[in-house]
Amino acid sequence: MAIKKRELMEMIFKPTNIGNITLENRIIRSATYEGMSNEQGISTEEYLNTYTRLAKNNIGAIITGFAYISKGGRAMQPKQAGIDDDSKIDVFQSMTDKVHSQNGRIFMQIAHCGRQTTEQATGSVVRGASTKRSSYFGSLPKQLSTEEALSIIEKFADAAKRCKKAGFDGVQIHAAHGYLIHQFILPSINSRKDIYGVDPEKGIGLHFLKSIIERTKEKCGKDFPILIKVSSGDDYFNGFKRNQFIQLIRFLDEMKVDAIEVSYGTMDHALGIFRGEKVPLDVVLEYNPKYKTNNSIVRFLRKNAFYPFMKPRIKMFSPMYNLAYAKIAKQHTQIPIICVGGFRTKQEMSDALEKKETDFISLCRPFICEPDLIKKLKANNAYKSKCLNCNICAVMCDSPNPTKCYFGEAV
Ligand SMILES: Cc1cc2nc3c(=O)[nH]c(=O)nc-3n(C[C@H](O)[C@H](O)[C@H](O)COP(=O)(O)O)c2cc1C
């Protein structure tokens, strides 16, 4: 009982609201691609069991992996879930029922990949905010016409409505990591001259996201929580600056969204998003669609010439690597801020919350590694996640395997 009282006093375990939803504690499972859906994007039994298990483990809230809102917005990961069709509502409903029966909270992350995909995955020409090509994905995108952009806005709102019907506690709109909404935000990508172009005063493109939020509120009602995931910076030559990030936060403040998750980067430099202690080169050369090869000479050159050249530009792991930006965000809004990236010890989480540097802590890899992490944090103030930031889980998203921790396993 004494322990229970002490726990209740800790910020980390204090029930807190996001919109009208009460979370049992301030720890969130950040969106994590599952690789547990079939080719039609219909989630499988494994998907249902994964979320039921997470809910049993007392996580404040769970955010699903990115689910596509339309076929044209599919990722190249082969087993991504989709929320693009009403026929999928029932399957998700059975999952959210299970999560709620465990007193869990669950938000669906909804996304459109824009230029960060392939024609093979979408079955159609890759579309983007502009014709600028992603250095990693390579396809030359066709710029969405104004009418097509409008249609995607509707598809986001329709997807959110499906989430509501399926019993999700809210949605997270993916406006980070270089996906379509982020492509509209970034002036380095958005060269449009129509209404969805970059606002000359603010220096970023906000109209597309603004319309998505407005239409989602219209279709789902103002009480249905909307979370937004944003990137605080990127690794492009003329990168996203602090002032542009502040403009983005002020805009979201005006839009009265329910929470903002602060992440980093784009998939062009994915290792800036999920930083590691080192790069799992052999796994990359085996599984990554861009770098894999059976040719031993090419493999040798990639490992011994290309990689050493790239290495200085790769951002390596440091604890709580997005916290500085979460702190900036908190200076510009009262909306709850969720910080993701590199939280590994209870001490780090408690300190960041106690100092009001963030309102929630979000974790991805630690929950892949230990779904029961909350219990361990409750039991031991000195607890440190077992995740080694090896990033094999991240690289393996390109394989047909479901997402899991590969620690100690031959891949
Ligand atoms: C295997 C894996 C899958 C991920 N899937 C998603 C995703 O679907 N949507 C998303 O916004 N971020 C995704 N991320 C990024 C995480 O949500 C998170 O921002 C990042 O891993 C940093 O948090 P961490 O240090 O706690 O892992 C993924 C990361 C990993 C490693």
Task: Describe this entry's structure for a reader.
With 411 residues, the protein is an alpha/beta fold. The chain has a single domain, classed as Aldolase class I (TIM Barrel). It has helices at residues 2-9, 45-56, 89-101, 119-122, 146-165, 180-185, 207-220, 242-254, 281-287, 296-310, 323-330, 346-354, 365-369, 373-379, 392-395; strands at residues 16-18, 21-23, 27-29, 61-63, 67-68, 106-111, 127-128, 142-143, 170-175, 226-231, 259-263, 337-340, 360-363. It has an eight-stranded parallel barrel with strand order 3-4-6-9-10-11-12-13, surrounded by seven helices. α2 (45-56) runs parallel beside α3 (89-101) and α5 (146-165) packs parallel to α7. The structure holds flavin mononucleotide (FMN).
Task: Describe the structure concisely for a colleague.
This protein has helices at residues 2-9, 45-56, 89-101, 119-122, 146-165, 180-185, 207-220, 242-254, 281-287, 296-310, 323-330, 346-354, 365-369, 373-379, 392-395; strands spanning 16-18, 21-23, 27-29, 61-63, 67-68, 106-111, 127-128, 142-143, 170-175, 226-231, 259-263, 337-340, 360-363.
**What is the H level of CATH, i.e. the homologous superfamily?**
Aldolase class I
Strand order of the largest sheet: 3-4-6-9-10-11-12-13
Give start-end ranges of low-pLDDT stretches.
1-5
Largest sheet: 8 strands, parallel, barrel
The domain count comes to 1
Radius of gyration, CA atoms, in whole angstroms? 20 Å
Bound molecules: flavin mononucleotide
Structural class: alpha/beta
The CATH top-level class label: Alpha Beta
Number of helices: 15
- Arithmetic mean of pLDDT: 95
Strand content of the residues, in percent?
5-15%
What's the architecture in CATH terms?
A: Alpha-Beta Barrel
CATH topology: TIM Barrel
Distance between the termini: 45 Å
